[in-house]
Design goal:
The structure holds two protein chains of two kinds.
Chain A: H1 25-29, H2 34-62, H3 73-109, H4 117-139, H5 153-157, H6 162-189, H7 202-234, H8 247-281, H9 288-301, H10 317-345, H11 354-377, H12 379-385, H13 389-419, E1 421-422, H14 425-452, H15 466-496, E2 498-499
Antiparallel strand pairs in A: 1-2
Helix pairs in contact in A: 2-3, 2-4, 2-15, 3-6, 3-7, 3-8, 3-13, 4-6, 6-7, 7-8, 7-9, 8-9, 8-10, 8-11, 8-13, 9-10, 10-11, 11-13, 11-14, 13-14, 14-15
Chain B: H1 15-47, H2 64-93, E1 100-107, E2 110-114, E3 120-122, E4 124-128, E5 133-139, E6 144-148, E7 153-157, E8 163-167, E9 173-179, E10 192-197, H3 199-207, H4 216-226, E11 251-253, E12 259-261, H5 264-272, H6 295-307
Helix pairs in contact in B: 1-2, 4-6
Classes of the chains: A mainly alpha, B alpha+beta.
């Protein structure tokens, strides 16, 4: 029983749109259309997700028995390292910004493209070059430093292919920086008439905040990893105490980026959720200004919490106190978002469509992820749970429960816009539930494992931890099914799905006022915005409300 | 040696009850919010289900009182979590004065431990129940981390630094310890056992075996002569370098006008990189021993210098300006 309004039968795809405007490999590889570039990214981040997913599967199979089931210690160490590197640098960080952000930011603000279309394409090629270096590292000896590259293990002692990997991540950094720059300039200069800052969809605010982190943070990680490469290759002493360096310096530099990087992953997902919830509750989002401001607050305060990863390195007590306090401060804007999303449901007209299931699942998982962050920020408690499975569970709740749920939910939400087709709704709802259940089964036991004292990155463990590990692996197999299903039916729907029409939900954003799939130029004429965001009452074009007959519904929006 | 309780490891040190209470507090606060928000979502989900295809929601844009409530209340609760956590942490980072000092050296992939009387252990640590124990830890290679779940304590063991941590075992027993900072191939087997013993058993165990060479003070004194430290650091203060009598734990006046407390870290640095901090009134003549001493040798030298703490401080040529015994 779908709750979307009945559609007039027989939607037709527009005759010409961005997908069929030009043909041939060349038209894709040299495209400057932000929508096509988004699809290029979609294919490439999916590839890396698949690689990282295979590593994760092997990790979980290996941990079925206390002595390790599948691989040698060396291989195990490579598996979790490569899982982290592939997932973080080549899937999670680019996923929402480079796929959904690329596709949607210009459309949401009523622009024809990003400010620098050629640089946008360049970003993708830089990503591919960086990715190739990293794949080369995986294929020629692998990488066993942990995704955190802690020195002097990475810079001196590791025998694996560290140098190509750090070069790859260094190169890939420029892709992030250019994407961030492109978004910031686009959002500042290319908004359609009437699209004021406080009429921007919250997804755009989130992308803006993310772009700030891209621009300010990425250079630091790029240079830091380059220093690791230089210490390894040329024996320049930055981090190795034997050469007069300090290994703790590396951690400061690394986390100065890598903590904000967590917000690179979660902010855009929060943006997606802020779009989905008002759409499927059919009412304005509760506390628009607070949600928008909290994105910026997270991006800014997020830069001042990095040393909470280092409470037990021997850092000064005063530093630990300051960073603990600041970490609690950054929790507030996240809490504000959760409260506002929840309140948006109040007196809404709520439907159960797939994107909404993802959004509600996101809130549940992010809630657990965020609350357990408070445990780790708590100095006294961190003494015990630091570097245990508690941490592993916590950040998977944020990055997978949060960011990936947001990404997959967003893909479903905008899939009709991207492809012009609808996916099979029942299958999609099933997959959302399977993902939610599988995720919790996989990662909740790890909180308990962590408190019991199981350290992370262990290829074997004391036998009393086995029950929880088996539970986690069982959950992971359900989770894997939850990821495979959308891959299959979304691909299937591109060819066989029902034609969606311009605005199937219907939603209020500008991207829904143009055909699906959109024309290359996005809009036939520059739209003029004279409504507030997420306004369902004063939008006769949506065909909602008691007085409008359903037969006049969305079909009119586009022509 | 995990307890029968399902979610908490055994409590065997002074920190275990305080960390567990903190955990309970955070779990209760989190449960409150998680249950409240989940209940609200589920309730709204059913209560405000879409009744007809064209229905729209009530346009509510926000409420300042609600916004300020959910900024202020979680903010105050956060402050409480911060403050309570800070109290436990500050205690953990500041060992009391009367500790039993045990030296721990981590290397890929084993732990070398030396008791105060010189008795050595590998991947085993014996400690007396009821005594404040301080581990002084160094690494020969990469970063390791000494983690005793039953004690709720852990601390990174960082090359080039001394890190210390303390605890007071409260219950006799054998408890597993782990390396919890990823350190390379055999990270997961770099573990061992802490044996907490009644003080009398510990004393008996300790006297079980010790050779004079194993005693770090004796070994340090020997090294002090072998490495020719003794030729400049004359105890009567007439040498080219300051006397080390009474230096440990005291305040040293430096050439740049600042003062530094002569702790393990300062002594280590002064041996390895002497020019980093020059004592006021002396020339930078001492050769650097960076890369020429093992961590164990540095610890022996430190133990020897520490043993000079009670020696008479000469009137001139003393390394220490204020005899600031703890």
């Amino acid at each position: 029983m779908s709750a979307t309004p009945p559609k007039p039968p027989g939607y037709q795809l527009p005759e010409e749109h961005y997908l069929n405007a030009t043909y041939g490999l060349r038209s894709w590889l040299l495209t400057t259309d932000h929508k096509r570039i988004a699809l290029l990214y979609l294919a490439s981040v999916t590839f890396f997700f698949f690689i990282g997913g295979i590593f994760a599967t092997m990790i979980r199979i290996h941990l079925l028995t206390p002595s390790g089931y599948l691989v040698t210690p060396e291989t195990y160490n490579k598996l979790f390292t490569m899982h982290g590197v592939a997932m973080i640098f080549f899937f999670l960080i680019p996923s929402i910004p480079a796929v959904l952000g690329n596709f949607l930011v210009p459309m949401m603000i009523g622009a024809k493209d990003l400010a620098f279309p050629k640089i946008n394409l360049l970003s993708w090629y830089i990503y591919l070059i960086g990715g190739s270096f990293v794949l080369y590292s995986f294929a020629t000896g692998g990488l066993d430093t942990g995704w955190t590259f802690y020195t002097p293990l990475s810079s001196v002692y590791s025998n694996s292919a560290v140098t190509p990997a750090v070069i790859g991540i260094f190169i890939n950094g420029f892709s992030s920086i250019l994407t961030g720059l492109n978004f910031v300039v686009t959002i500042h200069t290319m908004r359609a008439p009437g699209m004021t800052w406080f009429r921007l969809p919250l997804f755009v605010w989130a992308q803006y905040a993310t772009s700030i982190i891209f621009i300010l943070g990425t250079p630091v990680i790029a240079i830091t990893l380059l220093l690791v490469g230089l210490e390894r290759g040329l024996h320049l002493g930055f981090f190795n105490p034997a050469l007069g360096g300090d290994p703790i310096l590396f951690q400061h530099l690394f986390w100065f980026y890598s903590h904000p990087a967590v917000y690179i992953m979660i902010l855009p997902a929060m943006g997606v959720i802020s779009e989905i919830i008002p759409t499927f509750a059919r009412k304005p989002i509760f506390g628009y200004t607070f949600i928008a401001a909290s994105s910026i607050a997270i991006a800014v305060i997020g830069f001042f919490v990095w040393a909470h990863h280092m409470f037990l390195t021997g850092e000064s007590t005063y530093s630990a106190l300051a960073f603990s306090l600041l970490s609690y401060l950054v929790a507030i804007p996240s809490a504000v978002k959760v409260f506002n999303w929840t309140s948006t449901l109040y007196k809404g007209s709520i439907s159960y469509d797939t994107p909404m299931l993802y959004a509600l699942g996101f809130i549940g998982l992010f809630l657990i992820g965020g609350l357990t962050g408070l445990f780790l920020a708590c100095l006294g408690l961190d003494i015990h749970i630091h570097d245990t499975y508690f941490v592993v569970a916590h950040f998977h709740y944020i990055m997978v429960g949060g960011a990936v749920m947001g990404y997959v939910g967003g893909l479903h939400f905008w899939w009709p816009k991207i492809t012009g087709k609808l996916y099979p709704e029942f299958l999609a709802r099933t997959a959302a539930v399977v993902l939610f259940v599988g995720f919790n089964l996989t990662f909740f036991p790890q909180f308990i494992l962590g408190y019991l004292g199981m350290p992370r990155r262990y290829h074997n463990y004391p036998p009393e931890f086995q029950v929880l590990n088996v539970m986690s692996t069982a959950g992971a197999s359900i989770l894997a099914l939850g990821y495979l299903l959308p891959m299959i039916y979304l691909t299937w729907s591109m060819r066989y799905g029902k034609v969606a029409g311009p605005n199937p939900w219907p939603a209020t954003g500008l991207e829904w006022r143009t055909p699906s799939p959109p024309p290359t130029e996005n809009f036939d004429e520059t739209p003029v915005v004279d409504w507030e965001p997420y306004d369902y009452r004063n939008r006769p074009d949506l065909g909602l409300g008691a007085t409008t007959p359903p037969s006049l519904a969305p079909a009119h929006g586009d022509d | 040696m995990q307890s029968q309780l399902p979610f908490y490891p055994e409590q065997a040190s002074n920190f275990a009850p305080s960390v567990d209470s903190l955990m309970t507090f955070l779990i209760l606060v989190s449960l409150f919010f998680a249950v409240a928000i989940t209940a609200a979502i589920v309730f709204f989900f059913f209560k405000f289900r879409r009744k007809s295809p064209n229905e729209v929601g009530v346009p509510i844009h926000g409420d300042m009182r609600l916004e300020s409530t959910w900024i202020v209340v979680p903010g105050l609760l956060s402050l409480a979590m911060f403050a309570w956590g800070a109290v436990v942490y500050v205690d953990f980072r500041h060992p009391p004065a009367d500790t039993l000092d045990i030296y721990v050296i981590g290397k890929q992939w084993m732990w070398k431990i030396q008791q105060p009387n010189g008795r050595r252990e590998i991947n085993e640590l014996h400690v007396p129940v009821g005594r404040n124990v301080k581990l002084v830890m160094a690494s020969e290679d990469v970063i390791h981390d000494f983690f005793v779940p039953a004690f709720r304590v852990k601390m990174d063991v960082v090359p080039g630094h001394y890190n210390t941590m303390w605890f007071r075992p409260t219950k006799a027993g054998r408890y597993i310890f782990f390396c919890s900072q990823y350190c390379g191939t055999n990270h997961a087997v770099m573990d061992g056992w802490v044996t907490a013993m009644e003080p009398s058993d510990y004393a008996a165990w300790l006297s079980g075996s010790t050779g004079a060479d194993d005693n770090p003070v004796v070994a340090g004194e020997k090294l002090f002569a072998e490495k020719a430290c003794a030729t400049c650091h004359l105890s009567n203060g007439t040498g080219r370098a300051p006397s080390l009598n009474g230096v440990y734990g005291g305040t040293v006046h430096l050439a740049d006008g600042s003062n530094v407390t002569a702790d393990d870290g300062y002594i280590r640095e002064s041996i390895l990189v002497p020019n980093a901090k020059i004592v006021a009134g002396y020339q930078p003549l001492m050769p650097a021993f960076q890369g020429q001493l093992t961590e164990e040798q540095i610890m022996s030298l430190t133990a020897y210098i520490k043993s000079l703490q009670s020696q008479p401080v000469p009137a001139t040529g003393a390394g220490v300006t204020v005899s600031g015994k703890k």
